[in-house]
Amino acid sequence: MDFSSKLLEEAVNEMSQLPGIGRRTALRLVLHLLKQPESQTVALSKALLDLKTEVKFCRKCHNISDTDLCEICASHNRQKEVVCVVEDIRDVMAIENTSQYRGLYHVLGGKINPMEGVGPSQLTIRSLVEKAKNGEIEEIIFALSSTLEGDTTNFYIFKQLEGVNVKTSTIARGISVGDELEYADEVTLGRSITNRIPFESSLRN
Amino acid sequence: MDFSSKLLEEAVNEMSQLPGIGRRTALRLVLHLLKQPESQTVALSKALLDLKTEVKFCRKCHNISDTDLCEICASHNRQKEVVCVVEDIRDVMAIENTSQYRGLYHVLGGKINPMEGVGPSQLTIRSLVEKAKNGEIEEIIFALSSTLEGDTTNFYIFKQLEGVNVKTSTIARGISVGDELEYADEVTLGRSITNRIPFESSLRN
């Protein structure tokens, strides 16, 4: 693309660095901002910069937080001995939305992915293992997505916990509520049969 | 969505003001920026602010430009008496990419759209009519998209030019090169038959 303005080109270049935003979309977004009042661009720039420079991570669970200890970790109504291991804040938000979980979280900040240069040391695995060794935790629930990277990360943490007195569990995989059996993939369907539960416990939900 | 951080919420709110960016996508983009080096966020914010505060519009064609008179209007190699009327800079870039046009442009900045509160006075129609009345222009080529709003705008300008000694034309509508006739819509196919051209002239391109 040939731009008539260096300023425009620069803005499009920076915008198209974002994931899933190509140069055409970036141009559309930038031209939209140009048509809006200046206050909108100022507010967007300020919000992004403020977030980047002032963001804090909870010292206990590593979730994004405005305070030193996040609301969930600081709450007195949560089971502090149960910790759910998730990838990032989006997973925390998804689980919180279910209102089914009363324990704490541990945000890893990613999954082990050698292809993208993410090793165990870039994640917050060490602090999780330390919490377990200190006897703070009774149960660790693995809730990473069941991909190659997720399974690798789960297994790595599991090995690190060898000899530590802590229960580990993983969230149930199975057919989604409301889904038709005939369209389910074989792995999921197979697992849902292997890991069947007593009928009476399904009535509780 | 319930955020654990006001800073994050603010950034997501601002990002989701952009067209086609929902709150989930906004969260994904913002979390991506959080993982990247701070320089990327600084560069993005700076580029957007610089564009908004320092952008200039060519005083002749109203296209986005870094200078008072844009490169196209200032060039000695263009036919200054032919002016192509387009909606915005993207159309200029699309036509320039064809390398088929040697005239100048006139960027309207939008189309007449009462539903969105865009009337003729918000567009640069008056300056176009003045250029025509001053005798600077021999031919005006309408190249707005053929929607209700585009046709309305074309017709409004056409009426404003009554009594002015200027030729008006509109870009050809027809079947795209490489398209199959059977899949073309009826209006386009109909027009392409009505507006057929001598076979010899098709050999020139």
TrEMBL record, chains A, B:
The keyword DNA damage applies. A zinc finger (C4-type) spans 58-73. GO terms for molecular function: DNA binding; zinc ion binding. Residues 81-176 form the Toprim domain. Pfam families: RecR_C, RecR_HhH, RecR_ZnF, Toprim_4. SUPFAM superfamilies: Recombination protein RecR. NCBIfam families: recR. This is Recombination protein RecR.
